[in-house]
Specification:
Blueprint: H1 3-23, E1 27-32, E2 40-45, H2 52-64, H3 66-74, H4 79-89
Length: 90
Amino acid sequence: MSAYAEKDRLRRVARSLYLEIRALGLELVAHEDPGEPSGYALELIGLRSLSPSHADRLFRRAEAVTQGLLWVMWADWDPELEAKRKEGSA
């Protein structure tokens, strides 16, 4: 798989995960962390509102696509707006 294809896959996975996180009423926050490869660490706020197993699965999925979630959070487009538009036209 090319580097571009891998980056594109990561972005797509991160977009859907970001929307799922927001739909669950959780918040995703980035903190500077020089120890991380990206220079940032993500924090999922509100995980206690979920069952422990669901929270653990969601946390692990977010960990696996941290860089993609950062791209989604800092992108010029708003994925929530895109989802709302799709929902409104359905």
